[in-house]
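Sample pair:
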Amino acid sequence: MSEVVRAKPRFGVMRLIDATGYRLPLAGFVSILHRASGMLMFLLLPFILYLLDKSLTSESTFAELQALTSGVFVRLIILALSWAYLHHFCAGVRHLFMDLHYGLNKDAARQSAVSVLVISLALTALVALKLFGVF
């Protein structure tokens, strides 16, 4: 007897080779950045708490932290944290509106994703200008 072997359909499986031709929509990109910014804030939380604890200890440790944060590398970490917070906040507001069933169609979702990216990057640029002493 001969049996016909049927290939099982692969639902939900996307391998790296299969994903090369896939173009992620902008809303999906914003969603991934929302998760990445949340993870970045979570991972940098000990650094923030350390800075807060040391800054509140005494005036001398506050002066030491001012000297520490004058370095470019620490300022870049603070800028990354600022971006993470601003992006996470803007994307969270977008998700709240989507929970209220506003902006669920394709065009509105793309427009809100663009607005999240533009607003969060513009606010981060303002923070960077202030952080690096432009104004």
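DSSP finds five helices and no strands in the chain.
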